Amino acid sequence: MVRRKNDSLIAIDYTDFFKEDFSKIANELVEASLLTTDENFKKYLIYQAKALKENDQTLDAKADKYWSTLQTEPLEFTISRENYDDEMTSTVLENNELKSLIEKHKIEVVAKDKLGARVGITNHKGTELLLKFKDTMGQLSSLMPYSNTYTQTISNAKELKQTMVDVDLIALTGDYAEARGGITIAQNLPNNDKLSIKQGNGRRNVYHRQVRQSYDAKRTKLHLDTFLHPSFHQYYNVEADHIFVIGHENGHSLGPSSEYQNSPGICKSIIEENKADSISISFMPEYVKRGIITDYQLKEIYTTWITRRLLLRSKPIFPTETYKIVDLIEFNILLEYGAIHFDENKLLHIDFDKVSPAIYNLLEKVIDIQLSKSPTKAKAHIDKYTTWSNLHEYIATTQKKLGVKKYKNIVSYF
Length: 414
Ligand SMILES: [Zn+2]
What we know:
Layout: E1 2-5, E2 8-11, H1 14-17, H2 19-35, H3 39-53, H4 57-67, E3 75-82, H5 96-104, E4 114-122, H6 124-135, H7 137-141, E5 162-174, E6 186-189, H8 195-198, E7 203-208, H9 209-212, H10 217-227, H11 238-251, H12 258-261, H13 268-282, H14 284-289, H15 295-309, H16 322-336, E8 340-342, E9 348-350, H17 352-372, H18 375-385, H19 390-402
Parallel strand pairs: 5-7
Antiparallel strand pairs: 1-2, 3-4, 4-5, 6-7, 8-9
Helix pairs in contact: 2-3, 3-4, 10-19, 11-13, 11-15, 13-16, 13-17, 17-18
The structure holds zinc ion.
């Protein structure tokens, strides 16, 4: 916390500022650690309790380190610190005078965290599927563009410090539970700014099962009838979207290191999310080759991804609407490479064979940007591929006519 004191600013550590709340939480965690029979989970709880009590970031790093190795534990518990929603901090770099001062004094600009707690039960069947995808990552890293010119974050799956679990949610509290448009299908923590990541420790990705289980048959049919040529309707399947998300999340662990990922300044999240999407789609045929998904599922993944995510409701605002900007870039690339087109009735057609090659081309551009560490190059890429034409306007207007539902109906299947 930062407070003004006369003419200067003073920083107060969370452990002091929130002392009362933090020690209450720490006491609960210590109590839980006495009850659990799982050694890793116990270690995590003890270090987390310590970290909440002492102003010492190495303790936070230790807690994060143990938390990130939890893979086989039946229970899920997370104290989340995620910095994606802070839209203000990164804009300080837009002010050139401030930027040069920050650089001169070697100050790292770190976005503010949101804090929340998540409780759940690990779903074993869903987790098994995730681990199958994980096993391919070492091989995929060698297929990355310019893979010889930088050190791969991973070179084989065993080295990959990434755990992943599919979780049935019980509770989301704190900032997780605030009123907002939605919650992500998966959350991969810690973020790049955390000490544990800088020390080379791993991440843990938690997939929220209930979040992906919202489906409205009537509404989906209306949406498909409006935008997609009938010959493609058979390929629309919400579970295929889950597979796209797995590819996306794993994509964050491929490519150049976090130092490069953080380099494009204000554009860094857009470029990094663009990378993760591109890895997911361009490597999907590799999963078919390895027998993890079928050729039919591949068509479902393409169709569902394009129809569900890329038909935008409005022109996205730079730089805050990260995911929508990324969707628009991908839509425009698919159009440019003829992987999609709209017929005279404004119905979408997909040329399945062209989808992954088109997106691999995009992946090359994105990796080139990260390797260049150039914010200017990043911005030029975004400007070039976020053009908005009559077709985009037609889609957005039609989407608006179909309206937005104010709630989601989740039918959970176990
Ligand atoms: Zn992502």
